[in-house]
Write a structure and sequence with these properties.
180 residues, alpha/beta, 39% helix, globular
Amino acid sequence: AGQVARGINAVPGASACLRTVPSVATGIGNRVPEVPAAGAPYVSSSDLQRCDGLVLGSPTRFGNMAAALKYFIDGTASEWLAGTLRGKPAGVFTASSSLHGGQESTLLALYHTFYHWGSIIVPPGYTDPAFYAAGGNPYGVSATADPQQPEVAEATLEAVRVMTRRLVQVAGWLLKGQAA
């Protein structure tokens, strides 16, 4: 997520608003703090309303998004009814602990939300050689988190930069009323 935000911030005139979702409280009476102890603040309805584009990311959990993100998405009915994210460009990213850990199915599952919201999906496709070098995923950026080597591969970082430039470019076209 930090690399996605850096990629967006590297585009002149663009700025990222990095947010997270609260973890899902388990058990009766357990409460999630209203403000996270560390890291990015929790996403709010106003964050969704004011963004010109959206990039959702999640760790891969058994070929799907993490429960906390799904829980957040399930709570966006009022934004869906109001059309808050209609027409906004959107992209996705994920990471898992193994090369074939379900990244593609996670990326596709994240897109299901955008279909319902009426967002404009901006996949990286095979628009740049960076996506071949990063594993050839046309759906979004996917990283493999190796506990022995915690640094993200440079090929993946370049794919993030290309994906974010593409998303910002499409957002700019939409804001100016231009067609791609």
